[in-house]
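Quick check before the chapter quiz. The format below is the same one you will see on the exam, so make sure you can read both the input and the output lines.
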Amino acid sequence: MAAEKTTGIVLRVIPFSETSCIVTMFTRDFGKVTTMAKGARRPKSPFEAALDVLALCRIVFLNKNSDAMGLLTEAKLERRFRSATRSLDRLYAGYYIVELLNSMTDDGDPHPELFELSTQVIRQIDSSEISDKEVGLALLNYELKMLSILGHLPMLTKCVSCGREKTTIARVSFGLNAGGILCGACRGGESNIVSLSPEGLQFLLKIVGGQIGEQSRNSDNWNGQYQEQLNINENVNLSKELVGEDSFSGAEAESQASERTEVLEEDTTGKEADRSSKEVRRLIHKYITHLLGFQPKLYKFLRNL
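Here is the expected output.
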């Protein structure tokens, strides 16, 4: 047996006897590993209380290179997840990351990029510098990047079945079985379809860094932008009517109308972004559930994020 050194995130700790436990960790160099930690439950444990779920540890273990369980010989704590004592929602968010790592990775299959991503998002949600709403967005970003690293990111810019480029901004059909968006011709023979709004698709593309095909004045995309501009002009006219041209001089009235229009647009943009975020999160949750074949247990505890 060779002694291996690496850094790992503690995913699960299961009591095995009065003094020992079984520890599952997602490591930088060896992927997910399960080891026996002898003496870990003793009052004066050699592991210095490092074996706590979501803790980041430097470990030494004996890798048997077979189906047999390895032996954990040393674990030193680098960082503990402290939000567990401050916020229940953030604790659920951390446990959700643990559940994804347990469910979507295989034993002995290293993904250094996923390890770095996981440590980064755990540190982020453990920070008091971001709000609970930002924690929800951090989880969504983590889900999408994880899907990309593991090769499961859905196709979003063209039909996943026939490869036809999507050049219009219109409501799209997302095929859970197919693994991406479907054009009208390919949608008919597919099952497990989820409808996604134009705003939701744009929000999703913004996160993953994709973009819809070339715009043209003859496309529905351009027509949509033209209608959007008409709506903005209507809001400007409405704002001018609310201010009242008789109450101010022309310059003052225009300034007031502009200010009210900006506030209206900010409120509208914020609400649309919030709706799009919730829609995309529901879609990705359904997609991950389809990939796993079961719904992650922590979904129902993430509703406040």
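If your answer matched, good. The domain at 2-149 is CATH 2.40.50.140 (OB fold (Dihydrolipoamide Acetyltransferase, E2P)).
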